[in-house]
Automatic annotation (TrEMBL):
TM annotation in the entry: none
Full protein stretch here: 1 to 273 of 991
Organism in which the protein naturally occurs: Telmatospirillum siberiense
Protein name, UniProt field: Glutamate synthase (NADPH), homotetrameric
Tree of life domain: Bacteria
């Protein structure tokens, strides 16, 4: 059993769990993910590692309650309670080296998995610019954590209720024009990552994206996370989840993401009744 040692609510739909899992914390690296299962017979869901503390033996995940299981996590599990399975770390960690100026872009919940990468790139001696994007002020979280690890922090809201008004891609374009980065990391919803990739493409700046959102079983067995990268078939859960965004076939990914829409809607309805 895995105890939830801390639970923090960011908004109506997003929340954080800090989970006591010393074995996972011991080997977690930026870019890794874990598979969680709440109870016997429950769905196994992939969640990207948002933080880890090897001394405390904890791993932090940030979750958006959109599907059946994530809503159960939000509604039925309080601080101090435990759940069944927390397997990981899985996937390949991000390669953290000395690149120079690294720009890290997080959109919405994608801000959480960006954080361990930001901290690691900073610790490796890079100059870091963070661009955090949220729909509005109420959804903002971890501004303080990002400020600590960033040489420059640009916080954007789509509706202009906080920080710089507009999308992260506009802020990214300004940075590309004025202080060209050596590497960009972009994590968030697929359309946001694709937009970042198209923004950096004309500048020829390598842009890594995280394809955690397309995973289902996370073990290389279901084939759901198949993606074409540079003309080669890859599996996000085994070969990724981080890939060179300029090589990723996003069109194929969009089609795949729509595949489970009706099953997801049915599961959500069952949970609501
Ligand atoms: Fe099923 Fe990768 S998530 S094969």
């Amino acid at each position: 059993m895995y105890p939830i040692v801390r639970r923090e609510v960011f908004s109506e739909t997003s929340f954080l769990w800090e989970v006591l899992a010393p074995d996972v914390a011991k080997s977690a690296e930026p870019g890794h993910f874990v598979m969680a299962r709440l109870y016997e017979g429950g769905e196994r869901i992939p969640l990207t590692v948002a933080d880890y503390d090897r001394d405390k033996g904890t791993v932090t995940i940030v979750v958006q309650a959109l599907g059946k299981t994530t809503r159960e996590m939000r509604d039925n599990y309080q601080e101090g309670e435990s759940f069944d399975d927390f397997v990981g770390p899985l996937g390949l960690p991000q390669h953290i080296g000395k690149a120079g100026h690294v720009v890290l872009v997080g959109g919405g919940l994608g801000v959480a998995p960006v954080y361990p990468q930001l901290r690691a790139f900073k610790a490796a001696g890079n100059r870091t610019t963070s661009i955090m994007g949220f729909r509005n002020k109420d959804l903002v979280f971890w501004e303080d954590k990002f400020a600590r690890e960033s040489d420059q922090l640009i916080l954007c809201t789509d509706d202009g209720s906080y920080g710089r008004p507009g999308f992260v891609t506009q802020a990214l374009k300004d940075v590309l024009d004025n202080d060209k980065p050596d590497l960009v990391i972009a994590i968030g919803p697929l359309p946001m990552m694709q937009a970042c990739v198209e923004t950096t493409r004309p500048y020829g700046v390598k842009t890594m994206v995280s394809l955690n959102t397309i995973m289902v079983d996370g073990t290389g067995m279901c084939g759901s996370c198949r993606v074409t990268v540079g003309g080669e078939v890859k599996f996000a859960c085994v070969d990724g989840p981080d890939f060179d965004g300029h090589q990723v076939d996003f069109k194929e990914l969009h089609a795949r993401q729509k595949r489970f829409k009706s099953e997801e809607a049915r599961a959500n309805e069952d949970f609501a009744h």
